[in-house]
Design goal:
Length: 154
């Protein structure tokens, strides 16, 4: 539950991560809205349903995106439209995974790569790897892997 007061516009922003996680877990929209209510993140029901459908669409396209060859351009039908501000025309969400031997734990993070031009999945993953490689090297973390997770187009 959110333990601090939120301004009207920020409730929807906080709810997006909950909605996305519930879509990825396979929860239906009614269950997602109930969970948002339990967390105190409610807003207009029709808007919540629209957000749920948008994230369901992103998840569906992201599952198809993993089958695009690393050296091929991503088809226009696999990009999700952007509803929020984005500086450059293309944005790629890349999943970065590495192992921390001190904590004996696999760490998964997501990073965004923005570009003026469309990138191949391999190029987007390579750029994400370039961002995390110094951290992995400096802290002597395990093997670094990157996987493109979603593509967005302005």
């Amino acid at each position: 539950m959110v333990m601090f007061p939120l301004k009207r516009g920020t409730i929807r922003a906080y709810a997006q991560e909950y909605i996305r996680a519930s879509v990825e877990r396979g929860l239906i929209s009614a269950e997602t809205i109930r969970l948002l209510g339990d967390e105190g993140l409610t807003y207009r029901r029709t808007t919540m349903l629209a957000d749920y459908r948008d994230w369901a669409n992103v998840t569906k396209k992201a599952s198809a995106l993993k089958f695009v060859r690393k050296d091929y351009q991503i088809g226009a039908d696999l990009y999700s439209p952007v509803k929020y501000s984005q500086v450059l025309p293309y944005r790629y969400e890349v999943k970065v995974t590495f192992y921390d031997p001190r904590r004996e734990k696999r760490i998964i993070e997501f990073t965004n790569i923005e570009s003026y031009d469309p990138l191949t999945p391999g190029r987007a993953e390579s750029e994400a790897g370039d961002i995390y490689r110094p951290v992995v090297t400096d802290y002597e973390l395990g093997e670094l892997t990157t996987t493109i997770h979603a593509g967005f187009k302005k």
